[in-house]
Design goal:
Blueprint (H helix, E strand, L loop, with lengths): L1 H34 E3 L5 E3 L2 H9 L3 E4 L2 E4 L1 H9 L3 E5 L5 E5 L11 H10 L8 E9 L2 E9 L12 H5 L1 H43 L12 H55 L5 H33 L7 E4 H13 L8 E6 L5 E4 L1 H17 L6 E7 L4 E8 L6 H6 L20 H11 L3 E7 L3 E9 L2
Parallel strand pairs: 10-12
Antiparallel strand pairs: 1-2, 3-4, 5-6, 5-8, 7-8, 9-11, 12-13, 13-15, 14-15
């Protein structure tokens, strides 16, 4: 609001300032047009140039044998500017002329000279005439300079009553200006109140969840943009809260179920061993094996929960060191295939480079890659094969892990890296904890990498991990 207020004030003063500026520029241009004139020679001069030229021309008049004439310098100036000249004796008769037009008279009475001196215009309006005076050997001569341009001599008369009572005129002008300002303020106030009313209604709509984003321009455009952003963030927050609440409920339900599932056989076989003492040694070993297997599953689940918490809160120590990534992944594949449950599976390994030096934590990296490989075997069948390819494109190190398993739908791939999400029911696949891929994603991001997945149902699933080289 403060920003909009400042902008409003700024706009008002900018309008006022620009109005004054344009008015001043217009007045200056008009004044400049009034006080300047363009000579026939093409020069722009002040409007008093004809008067000054007339006064200086008197110095160019010379007398030869008692008769007045113009010297060569004066003749050149008259020709250059197409100016005519007449020299009169004390009786008003013409005794010399140069570039005289046919419309001017050859005789001027005292009254004619006075009129010409006051107005600057003879009988024709095509020229402007200025009168000068010189004296030679006690005789007075008048000379008339005819300029081919329109020059006006202005004499101003003022109203004495209004001039002496100027305060009244000023007060009236100030009063009119004050009324104009009051009227403009009232109009602007109503407009501002209308805008604020719309803003208030928009805020109420946001609180009720019925707001429709608006595109506005003008002094309050930033407020409408802020309201649009606020509404978008509130709606996004509501969606995130609903999604988080749904995930939280699923998390509690799943973790409760997964903790109870292994407890049931442990409790059942423990009760059998406690109450029935007639079991054979082979039966007791089988019961103990089932109990240990379920206890190991619970232990893995608790470890995964702990690791997930540590990764998300950044409290897990990371020991990075430069290692040969190709050799590391090759040995990791061999370790997975040496497990009894995966000894009959196939993993194809391919790398464009023999050596790729990259800093990583080998324990965490082992956990991330193993989770992806084991996830493919667990959710596939006995014919599922995995292909691991390592390359070094322009962006950095790329690890591609693909399998020809059952594949996934778009909905499943969108939620694949969520904590505790499993595309297969726990009762069918009890080996997983639902945290493996979420942990893998956190470990990859901890190494400044990115992980993505694409899948075609019934065809294949491909994980692509990219790490920047720098």
């Amino acid at each position: 609001m403060r920003k909009s207020g400042y902008r409003t004030i700024f706009h008002i003063y900018m309008i006022f300032f620009l109005s004054l500026l344009w008015a001043a520029i217009a007045i200056f241009i008009i004044f400049l047009m009034l006080v300047t004139v363009r000579t026939p020679a093409g020069e722009t001069v002040r409007s008093n140039w004809p008067k000054l030229f007339t006064e200086s021309l008197g110095e160019q008049i010379i007398f030869i044998n008692g008769r007045p004439q113009i010297n060569q310098s004066g003749i050149e100036q008259l020709r250059k500017n197409q100016i005519g000249l007449q020299i009169l004796d004390n009786t008003g008769h013409e005794v010399y002329a140069f570039q005289k037009t046919g419309n001017v008279s050859g005789y001027y009475s005292a009254t004619d000279l006075l009129h010409l001196y006051q107005t600057g215009h003879p009988d024709t309006d095509e020229i402007t005439s200025f009168v000068g005076e010189i004296t030679y050997q006690g005789n007075d001569y008048a000379y008339i300079v005819h300029f081919p341009m329109e020059i006006r001599k202005i004499t101003m008369y003022l109203n004495g009553e209004h001039f002496t009572g100027g305060k009244t005129v000023i007060f009236r002008a100030v009063g009119v200006l004050f009324l104009v300002v009051i009227a403009a303020g009232i109009i602007y106030g109503f407009w501002t109140a209308k805008v604020i009313s719309r803003l208030t209604a928009s805020i109420q709509d946001i609180s009720k969840g019925h707001y429709i984003p608006l595109k506005r321009q003008g002094a309050f455009s930033d407020l409408y943009n802020s309201l649009n952003d606020l509404d978008s963030k509130i709606k996004a927050g509501d969606q995130l809260r609903e999604k988080t609440e749904t995930m939280r409920k699923e998390w509690i339900a799943n973790i409760t179920h997964d903790l109870k599932t292994p407890l049931s056989p442990i409790k059942g076989y423990a009760e059998i061993l406690q109450t029935d003492t007639a079991q054979t040694e082979e039966q007791r070993k089988r019961y103990a094996g089932v109990m240990l297997k379920n206890a190991a599953y619970m232990e893995n689940l608790i470890d995964d929960l702990k690791l997930t918490y540590q990764l998300e809160n950044g409290i897990l120590p990371v020991n990075r060191k430069d290692q040969n990534l190709v050799r590391f992944l090759r040995e990791l594949v061999i370790d997975v295939l040496n497990r009894p449950e995966y000894e009959n599976r196939r993993i194809q390994f391919d790398s464009t480079e023999k050596t790729i030096s990259f800093p990583f934590d080998d324990k965490l990296f082992t956990r991330a890659v193993q989770n992806i490989i084991v996830n493919a075997f667990v959710h596939g069948d006995e014919k599922t094969e995995i292909t691991i390819q390592i390359s070094v494109p322009v962006k950095g190190v790329q690890i591609c892990i693909a399998d020809n398993g059952k594949g996934m739908t778009a909905e499943e791939t969108d939620r694949l890296f969520e904590r505790y999400y499993r595309g297969t029911n726990t009762e069918n696949k009890p080996e997983g904890t639902g945290l493996g891929l979420a942990i893998a994603k956190n470990i990859v991001e901890l190494h400044n990498g990115t992980i993505s997945v694409s899948s075609i149902p019934g065809v294949e699933t491909t994980f692509i991990i990219v790490f920047p080289l720098n």
